[in-house]
Amino acid sequence: MNKRIFKILIAFVLIISLITVSAATFYKFQTSQAIKVATNPNTDKKFIKWVEFNASYAAMEKALSLDVKSHDKPVQLHWVELLAYLATKYGGDFKKYKAKDMDELVEKLNNGETIEQLTSKMKYYNYYYEAYDAILGNFVGEYDIQVKDPNNSENKQWVKKYGLKSFSPIAKGYSFSHYDDFGTGRTFGYKRKHLGNDLMGSIGTPIIAVESGIVEVMGWNMYGGWRIGIRSFDQKRYYYYAHLRKDRPFHSDMYEGKIVRAGDVIGYLGMTGYSTRENVNNITTPHLHFGMQIIFDESQKEGVNEIWIDVYNIVNLLQKNRSAVIKDDETRDYYRVYDIIEPNSGYDF
After folding, report:
1. Superfamily of domain 166-341
2. CA-to-CA distance for 56 and 66, rounded, in angstroms?
3. Where in this chain does the record put each M23ase beta-sheet core domain (predicted)?
4. From CA 155, how far away is CA 337, in angstroms rounded?
5. CB 339 within 8 A of CB 143
6. CA-CA distance, 32 to 41, in Å (whole number)?
7. Cα(50)–Cα(297) distance, integer angstroms
8. In this structure, what DSSP letter does residue 284 have?
9. Residues 229, 248 contacting (CB under 8 angstroms)
10. Which neighbouring-strand residues pair with 268?
11. Mean pLDDT split into 10-residue runs, the chain, 349 residues
């Protein structure tokens, strides 16, 4: 073989090897950067310090569908496990998502392999499972809900269901638009990142509790205007609804400490905020700022270790479940039409 050609081939092989090693090293670095764990000095409890959630709508919708369809089947597919497996496989980057990857995983599970067996050598699976379970774990489950009585449309009856039991933050029948604006810049007060998703709609649109929980904060904030914060019963999720309507921002039944059900009306869309003075419309476009904070340790609730996730695809997924509402002309408040009971919530509604 010509010596020059041989040298070129050797150089080519070395370059390919270098690229392969560099890619693997970058993948490990990228993944290790996402896996951040801290320890609470007061309790010695280790907890997740950071989560970058970017599961695609397509992946979540498919995993949700597989979970619901497999309920009461010999092999129950759990959507959080499916998503956590793929997150581990992709190093947390769902831009790599392919439906066939989930299909291959489901085929193995249906053929008798367990998720424990399939993830035994996946170093970061437990991290992704804990993170994704904190975000999505309570979205799906068994519940009882009212529906129209098929024999009398004026009556309701209770039915047992399994599936998506969290609701869209915008009531059924009310339109809105949004785009993925998480992390964009904000300058009022100080430069900061936008830690939520803005849902543009009409003033007075009823705002819905996404999940059952306890009203933790309610009142005025110079950045969020009239806002309300609801903590999930397991304490892992804090839902933040901001820029509510001037004069009548909250449902009249709301107060700090109140227990709310998923699907309840909690307030009304507006454009308040960006003012040190209460009850001022300084937002130019009516919208709901909707944010979700993930809390693994109480030290993360406020301060430098706060974890806010991108909820854009979650909002899209929640359009599958919207709460129908009706106005009470006497109180001028809106109320949900169909009530819900979550048997395993730990709270007696």
Report:
1. Glucose Permease (Domain IIA) (2.70.70.10)
2. 16
3. 193-293
4. 11
5. no
6. 23
7. 12
8. S
9. no
10. 206
11. 51 43 40 60 77 96 98 96 98 97 98 97 96 97 94 90 98 96 73 85 98 97 96 97 98 97 98 96 96 95 89 98 97 96 74
